[in-house]
Amino acid sequence: MVLSKWKLILLLMAVGLGSGVFWAYQQYYQTLNTKLTFNQPTLYELKRGQNLHHLLAYLEDEAGLPESWPVKLLVRFEPTLAELKAGTYELSPGMNVQQVLLLLASGKEKLFEIRLVEGFRWRDWQGQMQAHPHLLSAQLTELEAQLKPEGGSLEGWLMPDTYHFTRGMQASVLVKRAYLEMQKFLLEQWPKRKPDLPYASPYEALIMASIVEKETGLAEERPRIAAVFVNRLRKNMRLQTDPTVIYGMGDAFDGDIRRQDLRTATPYNTYVIKGLPPTPIAMVSRDALMAALHPIDSEELYFVSRNDGSHVFSTNLADHNAAVRQYQLKK
Question: What pTM does this model have?
Fold first, then answer.
């Protein structure tokens, strides 16, 4: 049977339309499911006021997105995918454009972290935060005036931990979080302390904990170190601990303590003053604070380093001097 001219034209149009629809579907499916060309985790920032148009332009330029019209068609069917939230996101190798849309619509920004270490001073923490490329540190110098911590300084008042944050967060937000964590922990643990400790307040326990923190890195020694200092306080003996001297020397400390330094009066020189120094001398871990609040029962009054991180403890000066000769003067 021979088709008429018009029937042939209509058949060809139908075939062509079908082919076009099939081609369009192929393009649509392939565009939405093809992996983007990120070969490593990549940070992408969608700024406030930007939208899907800005994202698609970026993906076309930087990630090999072949066409944008399939994505625009997709969001007509799934309008929530176009509700992108401003922020900084990590785009991973192997992601397709649908996964990118889901990520930005979820608002799950890339979290950065900073480890604020026990035993460091407030000035050390400030330096860490100022050096972090994704933190804003403009307000750090104003914090002590805002928070008004006991003792007038944030020294010792911030809880060491690994803190997570989104890009561009003010470092002051992390500091306030660390301050509240330490306040909460100290006030929770203070009523549970060992009876009859020679501390007049939770703040004095915090000061003691900072000294314990600086004297040893061995967790098992902390309650024993704390017991030595508690025993000395009870006997009205000077604490005679080098870390307080170093803290009081400030920038003058060059790595060595000399006899003259031990004799120079500062509020922190516990070879000269009796009792505790006026503020903590470092940031305090939970373990050091628990040791200060729960020292072991002992009669020890002295300790000296073995130069391997551990210490020899003594109950009398003669034994202590012998340990000093063995481990320090022979060094």
Answer: 0.84
Using CA atoms, how far apart are residues 134 and 113, in angstroms rounded to an integer? Answer: 9
As a whole number of angstroms, the distance between CA 99 and CA 83 comes to 14
Residue 162, helix vs strand vs coil? strand
Q: What is the DSSP string of 43-77?
A: EEEE-TT--HHHHHHHHHHHS----SHHHHHHHHH
Check residue 18 and give its pLDDT.
Answer: 54
The more confident residue out of 13 and 61 is: 61
CA 152 to chain centre: 23
Tens digit of pLDDT for each residue in 162-216?
999 999 999 999 999 999 999 999 999 999 999 999 999 999 999 999 999 999 9
Query: Largest Cα–Cα distance of the chain, in whole Å?
Result: 123
Which residues does 112 contact at the CB level (< 8 Å), separation at least 6?
A: 132, 134, 135, 164, 165, 166, 167
Q: Which residue has the tokens 């994505």?
A: 71
CA dist list (Å): 19 to 25, 26, 298, 302: 10, 10, 90, 91
Q: From CA 303, how far away is CA 307, in angstroms rounded?
A: 12
For residue 208, give both structure tokens.
Answer: 């003691």
Integer CA distances (angstroms), 234 to 49, 213, 229, 275, 276, in order: 64, 20, 9, 10, 12
User: Mean per-residue pLDDT for 261-285?
Assistant: 95
Q: Please give the structure tokens belonging to residue 317.
A: 């000066």
Split at pLDDT 50, 70, 90, the class of 142 is confident
d(CA 173, CA 179): 10
Residue identified by tokens 């001398």 is 281
Q: What is the CA radius of gyration of the chain?
A: 33
Distance CA 209, CA 309 (A): 18
**193 closest CA partner among 74, 294, 102:** 294
Residue 319 tokens, joined: 């034994």
